[in-house]
Structures are given as structure tokens and as C-alpha cells.
Design a protein that fits this description.
Elements lengths: L46 E2 L25 E10 L5 E8 L5 E2 L3 E7 L5 E7 H4 L19 E9 L2 E15 L3 E13 L16 H5 L4 E11 L1
Amino acid sequence: MGPVRRAAVGAVAATAVVGTVAACGAPDSGIAPSLAPHPSSVEASTARIDAAACEATPPSGRIVRSGYGLSYSTGTMTIAVKPDGGAPTCVEFAKSGRADPAVPPDTLLFTFAGDRGEGAQLEFLAVDLAGGTLPWPAGAVARPPGAPITTTVGVSLDGVYFASPSCTLALTTVTDQRAAGRFSCPSAVAQTEDPLNPDDDIAHDDPATAATPPKTAALSGLFVVGR
């Protein structure tokens, strides 16, 4: 059977845990599979835009510290992809996937789609939105609203899927009407598999492929979603 390509944005979201999700990872990547939820009716496209758009400040507002009862059907993710030794490319993807970002048991996953199987996803623990970890240790103090948290970011562009489980995310608003924030990933690693555009014809055991150091890229940008 020859190569078969499937759009992962049509798959049901798998149970995910931040720090191990957002890519079908290479064995040395430490990133395990995470499938994007059902696609929305938004027509997918990959828009190359001015670099300044990737430096924009997302809208700010109230931060509701609950990861449940949220629903966002529209929005964008604007992301700069700068391969090691290369020039950055600023692109924008449209909101895709389920309106409800909750992935049981405890993750929030936002997905965005482009054309040709390109797209991006951003994921973090719901408890981080609440400002801490469970169970609460004695004497613990909740993190202030908007304080940086750890997030997983993955982006598929020009046939390469870069992902990192240790990105920094500063949420600027989270309400039942809108959510937004800025993220930064100093070093994302190219994966051998792309959850946004899987390929069954990858030679996973090819010694030459295994011996080649993976590409890396810096990722940064913002997301804004709403009803």
C-alpha cells in the first residue's frame, strides 16, 4: 500500500498531558502523539503576512480561572517560525477543531488549520489557568492571573512539523467570550511525524534518518479566539 495522507484536523482529540503532547514525536523528542479535534467549517488557508503581525500585542481583559465551560469557534494563531540559521516566516492560521478546548482529563487544546495540511496547535494544563498545581501543597499561593505558564506548541509549515513542550505562554484574557495570549519557544524540534498531516510512508527505522540531527526552530507569536 502506497503513501496515504490523512488530515489530522479531522481526527478526534486524544487524551493529552502537557509536556508530552502536541506531536507524533521522534523517539528522542520526548513528545508523544496528540490528535487535533474535529475541524470547524472555516476554510483552511496559510497566509504569509508581515513580520510585524507576529510581534503584535494580543487583546487584554479579564481572566476567568476555570478551564471548563469555554467555547470558541473563531479566531487565529499568528506565529513566526525561524529555523536555525534561517530567516523567520510569519504566518497566520484560522481556528479549527472543536469549539470546546477541553481535552479530558485536564488539558486545554487550541488548534488552527492552514492549507496543504499545514497548521498549528497550542496546549496547556487547565490547572495552570487556575494558577497552580493540584493537589495544593501546604502554604501554596496561586500564581497571579496572566503570569507565564508552560505550554506545548506545534506548527506544521513547508513540510516540517516543529514542536516544543517547554514554551512560555502569557495569557492576556480568558473569558466565555474570548481568549488570547502570547507564546515563545526558543527551541522547537522537527519531528519525524506530523500529527497535522500524517504520512504512513515514513521510514522510522532508517539508520541514515536516525543519525541526522533534527532541525530546530524558534517559534513565537499570539493566538486570539472567540465565539
